[in-house]
Write a structure and sequence with these properties.
alpha+beta, 5-stranded antiparallel β-sheet, 4-stranded antiparallel β-sheet, 6 helices, 22% helix
Amino acid sequence: MRNFLDYLFKEWFRQVGEALLLAFLVTTFVFTTVGVVGSSMNPTLLNGERVFVPKYETWLVRFGLMQWQRGEVAIVKPPEGTPNAVAQFPVLGFQFRAFFIKRIVGLPGDEVSLREGVVYVNGKPLNEIHITASLTPYPDSYPVVCYDNEKLTALITQQQVRFAPDQLPEYLKPTLEMLAPPSAEDLQLSRSGEHCFTSALKLKPGYYFVMGDNRTFGGSEDSRTFGPVPTASIAGRASAVWWPLNRIRALPIPEGFKGL
């Protein structure tokens, strides 16, 4: 019996354990792959494609040796409580907070806003020909805020969801801290009744603004819904599509993001 147990350990348990440990180390520190689910990154990424993610970059960012760039496609863990962020594991049935695939639009320190479907970064309109060549963005604006008698009364997020400041979900409280102060003109208008207008977010250190490329109505749930995400919530960068084989391609930073 002892010889049989020794055999199981040496020939099976140890080999399987070593393989699992190696797989864990590779996917944690070297590279992994992620599947695209849904259409939030159309036309750049299609449902069912798989992307290559160099995990060593994530650790370089966390140790301060590099940083994520505007225009990169990021694997993002949305904040807890984000609508539609909970997925169900096949067969086993347990629920988990799924990763999203989004594009980094704003870096720490940037001022970001969306006006009539056009993204502005530090006051400059973003040329998103990689999107507009294939689809027409929905003309929404973000963040929309309301003031009454110089007091903030509402934050309106994606798809016209309105929150009073004292009723914000936990995941949106950092957004409130990043709102740009209203202009003297907007404050003046608020003295005559509630005045709503498009503001901007000044991203705090360590926070990124992410958006899906599918800018049609309801096309992407992103920072317009759950706010900017901290560095720790970015699990890596999608550098290339490797599956299916007939659609292998790199995912470079679009030209419109360069030079901002």
